[in-house]
Amino acid sequence: MRGKRLAVIVAVIALVSGASTADAIVGGTPARVADTPWVVAITTTDGQLICGGALVAPDKVVTAAHCATIKGVVGRNQRPAEQLRVVAGRTDLRATGEGIEAAVANVWRHPEYKDVTKGDDVAVLTLARSLPYRTIALGEVGEDGVVLGWGRTAESSPPAMTLRKVTVPILPDAECVAKEPDYRPGAMLCAGRGGRDACAGDSGGPLVVRGRLAGVVSFGRGCARADEPGVYTRLAHYRSTLGF
Ligand code: ARG
Q: I need a labelling partner for 212 at 20 to 30 A (CA). Which of 12, 93, 147, 170 fits?
């Protein structure tokens, strides 16, 4: 009797913990924009999810340069501002009546940006209007951070389309260099030891440390793999370039 009950409890625990690693941003939980009003989605004009971003001023969104890039025949061109929308105040991107969709008046990509794994993967979108949502200030890295997004919940799952978040450990630069050949200490940060990570569709989105914006989701090999941390643009490095 006792043994049987124990077996059932163990089975339930195994099931629940197994489900949580297979589920989420990857490995995360649902989040609400009401709690983090500065997190925004970047979409096409017809509402397809491109990336995430963060409101750093009423009319400025920090995102990844690769989110504002189109691969052309001859190279990687800046995506025209009129092809982008910023969606704020909408936890479920399919709830088109909620929140605000803002047009983009100007796209600034880091002038050195070449390719996502080469770094300088940061862009600032200037909105056509100011948004009435709380903004987030830039900050430094710490022991861990929270990454938010509407993207895939596993490498081969479709985007969640509802906001999710997960806490990820921030790794020492030496460990990032060892695991990611393109890693640039100081200008990037890497986070995650498997199970928890950002994934496709989360790019450009915020990594928050102590309530401040420390990183931008940039790239990864697969998602949440044991030896493949997610790589982020380290915003503290770009503070003077960005000017806020
Ligand atoms: N580059 C991907 C995107 O465009 C996201 C990369 C993040 N991947 C990761 N495993 N942390 O959405």
A: 93
Between CA 228 and CA 158 the distance in angstroms is: 21
Question: pLDDT by residue (tens digit) across 88-122?
Answer: 999 999 999 999 999 999 999 999 999 999 999 99
Banded pLDDT at 8 (limits 50, 70, 90) = very low
Q: Is residue 159 located within the same domain as residue 85?
A: no
Based on the residue annotation, tell me whether 92 is a catalytic residue of this protein: no
121 catalytic residue (yes or no): yes
From 48, 71, 219, give the residue whose CB has the most ligand 1 atoms within 8 Å, as the site to mutate: 219
Nearest CA to ligand 1 atom 6: 219
**CB of 200 shorter than 6 A to ligand 1:** yes
Query: Which of 170, 197, 202 has most ligand 1 atoms within 8 Å of CB, for mutation?
Result: 202
Mark whether 122 and 12 lie in a shared domain: yes
pLDDT digits (tens, 9 = 90+) for 203-218: 999 999 999 999 999 9
The model's pTM: 0.90
- Among residues 98, 127, 156, which one ends one of the domains? 127
Identify whether the C-beta of residue 117 lies closer than 8 Å to the C-beta of residue 96.
no
218 is catalytic: no
Structural domain contains residue 27: no
Residue 1 lies in a domain: no
